[in-house]
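User: My instructor asked us to take a sequence, write out its structure as tokens, and then describe one feature of it. I'm not sure where to start. Here is the sequence I was given:
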Amino acid sequence: MLLVALVAVSMAPTCGKRLPPRPPIERIPQRTEALSGVQRGNQVILSWPAPRRNAGSGSVQSIRRIDVYRVAEKLDAPRPMTEEDFGARATLMGSVPYADIQKATDNLTYIDSLELAGEPSRLRYAVRYVNAAGQRAAFSNFLLIEPAAKIAETPGDVKVEVSQNAVTLKWEPPRQNIDGSTPVNLLGYNVYRVTASQNEPGQIPINQALITTPEYQDRNFKFGEKYTYVVRSVSLGTLAQPVESLNSNSVDITPVDTFEPSAPTGVSIGPAPGLLSIFFAANPESDIAGYLVYRSTDLNAPRPWTLITPALVSRTTLRDENVDPGKTYHYYVVAVDTAGNRSQPSEVASETVP
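Assistant: Let's start with the prediction itself. The structure tokens for your sequence are:
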């Protein structure tokens, strides 16, 4: 009996005994289904949303890099492809490192520079996330691109000029296609503008329609703000789709308003007992701050005449009640813009007080 009891005790479960620590279970990283891309010059620019971040910590789930893969296919190759076939045939083109993933808040990008030599081909891209343990997520969606070789080079020697109403850009047309061939495959141009709050050009050009001459006027600008301009050639690519070139040289400019407004016009005077009413047309400039009105009883007196509006007037009418009956008064008007630039005097208008 004693032996049996000892055996039973030895076989009893040991409650509270600590097991040796186990390594944490690594989770397979998330994947993306939103891979997109576009050809620009001799580059394919891939883009996809930045990985989701853990709630609270704000850090990216255990992703340490994102690998970019590519398969080159013949144009008549079947479009469907399994993930297994892609993995067996794909070439690892490069990776987005952990540091770039951590900084991304919107989209991640990867640029694949192409040789564009030999027979035309179709390129199939996919990305996959890799965690700290080296575990790989499934491939993303496949992106198929048929790059075109006869794409116009970038425009050259972009220059800008500033006037009262526009920032005018001028540039040299491309001389050949990126593969060295001529004539140039050119549909037109797009102009992009980067403001101080941006890092690079956006997706939408500032021109509403394709520009067909090597010149563009940007009328939607503000004096005192810093802008960077770039121009891209636009060519007809595969599948009748437009393809842009790489960026031209960039031009930085902070327009300064040193331009005087035009002289006011249409100055006339309406007489009445004890007063003269001065009327004039509003200036066409959008940045007019107001007007100054000058008066004299001597048409040939040296200018400037007596200023009867110590402060700028915003209206285009003025009553002068500091007049004497029977006297003749002469007036001219000067326009002033928001930068303090003054116009030339208007033509003189004269009237006698009844």
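For the description part of your assignment, you could build on this observation: The CA atoms of residues 72 and 123 lie 5 Å apart. Try explaining in your own words what that tells you about the chain.
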